[in-house]
Specification:
The complex is a heterodimer of chains A (about 425) and B (about 250). By secondary structure, chain A is an alpha/beta fold. Chain A has 2 domains: about 160 residues, Aspartate Aminotransferase, domain 1 (Alpha-Beta Complex); about 240 residues, Type I PLP-dependent aspartate aminotransferase-like (Major domain) (Aspartate Aminotransferase, domain 2). Chain A is built from 12 helices and 13 strands. In chain A, a hairpin with a 2-residue loop joins strand 1 and strand 2. The longest helix of chain A has 22 residues. Chain A is globular. In chain B, about 40% of the residues are buried. Chain B is globular and about 55 Å long. In chain B, the strands form 2 sheets. Chain B has a 5-stranded mixed β-sheet with strand order 7-6-5-8-9. In chain B, strands 2-1-3-4 form a 4-stranded mixed β-sheet. Chain B folds into 2 domains: about 120 residues; about 120 residues, 2-Layer Sandwich (Nonspecific Lipid-transfer Protein, Chain A), CATH 3.30.1050. Classes of the chains: A alpha/beta (about 425), B alpha+beta (about 250). The interface between A and B is medium-sized, with 34 and 30 residues.
Chain lengths: ~425, ~250
């Protein structure tokens, strides 16, 4: 038995690197970037450079990027304004014995952006913030139980990791799940556990991997807020993925509710490593008691990049641009799908669409389509929501749709 | 949900995972056929019936077309899972009640035991001897065990209960090894015809790779990235079934 032949256009340099990596790196590539989570043998494994909404893999093949580094790239790769700010700070220094003044500036700016927030703290990754926010809720309430939505991703820490290795039963003893939008289940959980509830942690809408995105029902957020208030539990918004992509003041504004603490990461520094949690003044004392640090968490370069990025988002009306580009992409893809009689299901906000073929609950045909799209230079993920950036302008979307049409032609011939 | 006691779980593993693989062993492999070649009576069946669990039947039949008679039946009743397990684990004295085929008890039960001994010898023997066969038998046992564990063991049920329903098919090259199906409430498994198209297919490209996976020595993510294992469809379901399959070792030591 032999391996199936790789697709003719498969980037050979990617595989050569991966073969080396597999010997010295567990998994070869681990985490969300693992080839195992895409279509191995059909997708690129390594990237060498990027510009705007395009990147080039280890073989020099160009892709129109609809994952944007799985979210962080919001202004486009290598954005001049952000790079200049980062370079300026890098010349001054990055990792000091103390925070740089830019930390205060960034905290003030974020607090001014996010209406309910009175304070901000910074980390490096989304997990840093969601885990810390859960600790703050426990510190404030003196309670243990946390409620989250089934299938929601809140990071890689033991209480929420989607993986199974290395976990012990106790890690999740006080972590409970309910089905997104199931308000009866939510009410019922509070009835049973309300007195022990430290927090409910939720993403602004449900965007599970291997599933369609699901928007909150009209009653969802008011009910969550009411129950948290009634039972003295904190409402933590995990806005790591969607933050500043739906609304310039945070996704809670898009959906019309107020959390107690919100966590941000991906979009705030256009690819520089930084995350943030913002909260109300009632929780500031508790927040000050929960230890928070890391070797690079005061890194000034990322903070400078974040400040420049957030200011640019506001200045450039980024949300509107990304939404318009997303709508253009969605409408174009749906038209192509109709033309080729391969209906698509597109869910979630236009700037972060989840796309799959209809009648394909196990994603197998979607995987085939995305593998073909990769050959056409489109990085379409088969089972994760996509991301658009400000760099996805009309010309880029038009070009993407042209490539997508070629992918549909090939896909159709494969199916028939 | 009520989960099984250790004895009941083990008995179900013996009945629903091990016995069907022994059936595969004698029907489909030269080594298994060799064990049974010396048998005179080749038209009989053995029914294992454990109170509170159910029945599993092994049919030994090399009858040619035209032989219409009913097979002779040795129908054994075990009063408890413990009694059945004692036979498989060879612990203590255990004599089941023969509900039918009493005359076969002392002639045919030892035949089965010699067959089981040969099976065990392959499974526990030198890992370099009969490696492909042992690997095949082990993966089939693990697949069927996973269905039992998902039904009966809390840890496994907790793992599968968050999964989207579907059927995972495991293959070695183009050969089907077996399947597990989760319908959202119950798990079933089989070695033969699929009851529905697979939701996810996991194909190993070599026996060595499969053996490494069974031994817990395989970097599975890397193997998938290298296309040594191909996963097509709803990967998380296969991932969870893989974790449950690993748990079978806790009960059925290879």
């Amino acid at each position: 038995m032999n391996k199936p032949p790789l697709q003719p256009s498969f980037p050979k340099a990617s595989m050569a690197l991966f073969e080396r990596a597999a010997k010295v790196v567990p998994g070869g590539i681990y985490g969300h970037a693992s080839p195992a989570l895409t279509v191995p043998g059909a997708f690129p494994y390594y990237a060498v450079r990027a510009e705007g909404c395009r990147y080039w893999d280890a073989d020099g093949v160009e892709y129109l990027d609809f994952m944007c580094g799985y979210g962080p790239i919001i202004l486009g790769h290598n954005h001049a304004g952000v790079e200049d700010a980062a370079a300026h700070q890098r010349r001054l220094g990055d990792c000091f014995n103390h925070p740089a003044p830019v930390m205060v500036e960034l905290a003030e700016y974020m607090v001014s952006l996010v209406d309910f927030a009175d304070w901000a703290v910074f980390g490096k990754n989304g997990s840093d913030m969601t885990t810390w926010a859960v600790q703050v809720a426990r510190e404030f309430t003196g309670r243990k139980k946390i409620l989250k939505a089934s299938g929601a991703y809140h990071g890689k820490d033991a209480w929420c990791s989607p993986g199974h290795g290395g976990l012990i039963e106790e890690d999740r003893r006080h972590i409970h799940n309910f089905r997104w939008n199931d308000l009866d289940a939510l009410e019922s959980w509070f009835k049973t556990h309300g007195e022990q509830a430290a927090a409910v942690i939720l993403t602004p809408y449900h965007h599970p991997a291997f599933g369609d995105s699901e928007m909150p029902s009209q009653e969802f957020w008011p009910t969550v807020r009411r129950l948290c208030d009634k039972h003295g539990a904190l409402l933590i918004l995990d806005d790591v993925r969607a933050g500043f992509r739906l609304h310039g003041g945070g996704s809670h504004r898009f959906f019309g509710f107020e959390p107690d603490i919100s966590c941000y990461c991906k979009a705030i520094a256009n690819g520089y490593p930084i995350s943030a949690a913002l909260g109300r003044k009632e929780f500031k004392a508790a927040a000050s008691r929960v230890f928070l640090t890391g070797s690079y968490w005061n890194g000034a370069v990322a903070m400078s990049a974040a400040l420049a990025c957030l200011q640019t988002l506001e200045k450039e009306k980024a949300i509107e641009k990304m939404a318009a580009a997303g709508e253009m992409l969605r409408d174009g893809l749906l038209a192509l799908a109709s033309k080729f009689n391969s209906p698509l299901v597109i869910s979630g906000p236009p700037s972060m669409p989840s796309v799959r073929l209809a009648h394909d609950d196990n994603f197998e045909r979607t995987q085939e389509f995305c593998a073909i799209a990769a050959r056409e230079g489109l990085f379409f993920h088969p089972h994760h929501n996509w991301f658009l950036s400000v760099a996805h302008d009309g010309a880029a979307i038009t070009e993407s749709l042209r490539r997508a049409e070629r992918a549909f032609v090939s896909f159709k011939s494969t199916v028939s | 949900m009520d989960f099984c006691s250790h004895d009941t779980l083990l008995a179900r593993l013996h009945m629903e995972a091990l016995l069907p693989v022994i059936r595969f062993f004698i029907e489909e492999t030269p080594e298994g056929k060799a064990v049974t070649e010396s048998w005179q009576d080749w038209h009989w069946e053995m029914r294992w019936h454990v109170m509170g669990i159910g029945k599993t039947t092994l049919l030994f039949d090399r009858a040619t077309v035209g032989v219409a008679c009913q097979p002779r039946r040795l129908h054994l009743l075990f009063l408890s899972p413990f009694q059945l397990n004692s036979i498989f684990l060879k612990k203590g004295f255990s004599l089941p009640l023969p509900l039918s085929g009493f005359s076969l008890l002392f002639s045919h039960l030892p035949r089965f035991q010699s067959l089981a001994d040969q099976f065990e010898k392959i499974m526990r023997g030198n890992r370099h001897e009969n490696a492909p066969l042992r690997c095949l038998l082990a993966i089939k046992t693990a697949i069927l065990s996973a269905a039992v564990l998902a039904e009966c063991e809390q840890e496994s049920h907790d793992l599968i209960s968050g999964c989207t329903p579907g059927l995972a098919l495991f293959k070695l090259g183009q050969t089907n090894l077996g399947w597990i199906r989760w319908d959202g409430r119950h798990a079933t498994g089989g070695l033969d015809t699929l009851p529905e198209p697979p939701t996810v297919t996991v194909s190993f490209t070599s026996t060595a790779l499969l053996q490494a996976a069974l031994d817990g020595q395989l970097d599975q993510l890397a193997a998938v990235g290298l296309c040594d294992i191909q996963v097509c469809g709803l990967a998380p379901l296969a991932d969870v079934f893989g974790l449950i399959m690993d748990r079978a070792n806790k009960y059925l030591q290879p």
